[in-house]
TrEMBL record:
This is Molybdopterin-dependent oxidoreductase. The chain crosses the membrane at residues 77-104, 142-162, 183-205, 217-235, 282-302. Residues 252-261 have a biased composition (Basic and acidic residues). The lineage of its organism: Bacteria, Bacillati, Actinomycetota, Actinomycetes, Kitasatosporales. It comes from Streptomyces glomeratus. PANTHER family: BLL0505 PROTEIN (PTHR43032:SF2), PROTEIN-METHIONINE-SULFOXIDE REDUCTASE (PTHR43032).
């Protein structure tokens, strides 16, 4: 030790030396970074070399050649008109779709959550309200009806930009390749979302997995690509829309229809043919197609006299049809509910604090009943008018179970285990005075297909969560 109490080596160097392992780690990190940079540069050089070789070869016959696309009305202005409609409509479809997911109260647990691996994508979820009672009928009706109505606009937009999908060479630079990849995600995403959504509306369950999971993740992937694309193209779209007057185009006849000036995106044909349709005709045809789809779809959500025009609705269109006078999604037989499940031996079990309470249907019928006028609204976009339900309030049953302030209830059906044979309801749904364990509807006993002996009906609740054939209620705090 030296006179100052420090080891000589430490005193001579002015402080402790860094460990040798730390120096080696820094050197390894420097080498790894250099190697990674070299690999990236080598890959980029390879892409550039391939692009040069492909670019030096003539495009193959067909759609890869610019002269293949000859429609004189195709160009930035028409593309921007369709794009503007989608720029307004698609975010509204996305928002109402996310609200539909929130309406299932997925954060209550696995029984309600059809997309358990959503992670941070569920950041926006909130307690779904029961006021106004027609909320889900509105949001899901808008979601489905608008989605169907925009199909002609979507197809027209894809037609207007289809030359971009056949650019030659396919990849010129790394940046161009990334742009092409984003375009592929955008086009593939929008087709996937619209096709799966329409199939589900028509009750075509042909998905290689859960529709909810596929549609949910597909929506987030698509909307991310959509936002990026819109941000990049917004300035060009604004300039294109200003380049021509809408009123002027609507007055232009076939004889005076001319191609737009050449554009950097290659949408305007290099060798246009004589026009066979005006831009006015294209916009009118697409608008008429959307209007037709609106007429044959909206009635299933709006109801009234329009219900008869809902030709695309997968359910009965005539008011007053079906058991108890309104439509159903699935019959008791379709989900495996038989007379053995709901016959003389059926009992309602109510659990909470203390011993379980067990009731026959006859005992439930002599208890104090309450009435509520509520619709059934389903994820497929269809809904019924308000039906006159009669039964026991869920909040009264919670009090009977010893939990007057219950924060949730597990509702279980006699239906064989499967999706939505059980559901969890929130406290606000329990304590809404219109939330019932219904025994009768429209002045008659529930039919078997509508949930006899008892079913749940809750304001603003997705139809599939208004569980039918209930045999157990477990109230919890």
């Amino acid at each position: 030790m030296g006179d100052d109490g420090r080891p000589p080596a430490s005193r001579a160097s002015g402080g402790p030396k860094p460990p040798a392992d730390e120096g080696h780690a820094r050197e390894r990190l420097r080498r790894a970074r250099a190697t990674t940079a070299a690999l990236i540069e080598r890959a980029a050089a390879g892409v550039r070399a391939v692009a040069r070789r492909v670019g030096q070869t003539p495009p193959p016959p067909g759609p890869f050649r610019p002269e293949f696309w000859r429609s004189p009305i195709r160009g930035p202005w028409l593309t921007s008109v369709f794009g503007l409609v989608l720029l307004i409509g698609i975010p509204l479809i996305f928002i109402t779709g996310m609200l539909s997911y929130a309406a299932y109260n997925p954060d209550l647990g696995p029984l309600n959550d059809q997309t358990p691996d959503k992670g941070v994508l569920g950041f926006y979820l909130f307690d779904w309200p029961t006021h106004p009672y027609w909320l889900y009928r509105l949001t899901q009706g808008v979601h489905v009806t608008l989605g169907v109505t925009l199909v002609p606009v979507l197809l027209a937009k894809l037609w207007s930009v289809i030359p971009k999908l056949f650019e030659w060479p396919p990849v010129r630079t790394v940046a161009h390749g990334l742009e092409r990849l984003s375009l592929l995600i955008l086009v593939g995403g929008v087709i996937f979302e619209f096709v799966t959504g329409i199939f589900n509306v028509q009750l075509f369950y042909v998905f290689p997995g859960s529709f909810y999971t596929l549609h949910f993740y597909g929506a987030w992937v698509f909307i991310a690509a959509f936002v990026v694309h819109a941000g990049i193209r917004l300035g060009r779209m604004r300039r294109a829309l200003r380049s021509r007057s809408l009123a002027g185009e609507l007055r232009t006849d076939l004889a005076h229809t001319r191609p737009e000036p050449p554009d950097p995106d290659g949408l305007v044909p290099t060798a246009p043919q004589a026009p066979t349709m005006t831009r006015r005709g294209a916009v009118g045809m697409v608008g008429a197609g959307s209007l037709l789809l609106l007429v044959v779809t909206a009635g299933q959500s709006i109801g009234g006299r329009l219900r008869e025009s809902a030709l695309l609705a997968p359910h009965n269109r005539v008011p007053g049809s079906g058991p108890n006078g309104f439509q159903i999604n699935k019959t008791a037989a379709a989900v495996g509910v038989t007379s053995a499940h709901i016959g003389r031996d059926w009992r309602l079990h109510v659990l909470g604090r203390g011993p379980a309470l067990v009731f026959t249907r006859e005992q439930l019928l002599v208890m104090r009943h309450h009435n509520a006028a509520l619709p059934i609204a389903c994820v497929e976009g269809w809904s019924t008018p308000d039906q006159r339900w009669s039964g026991l309030r869920l909040t009264d049953l919670a009090a009977l179970a010893g939990l007057p302030n219950a924060s949730s209830v597990l509702v279980e059906s006699v239906q064989p285990p499967g999706p939505y044979s059980s559901v969890v309801l929130r406290g606000n749904q329990i304590h809404d005075p219109r939330s019932l364990l219904a025994l009768r509807v429209n002045g008659a006993d529930l039919s078997i297909d509508h949930g006899y002996p008892a079913r749940v009906i809750v304001p603003a609740n997705p139809g599939v969560n208004n569980t039918k054939w209930v045999h157990r209620l477990t109230f919890r705090t």
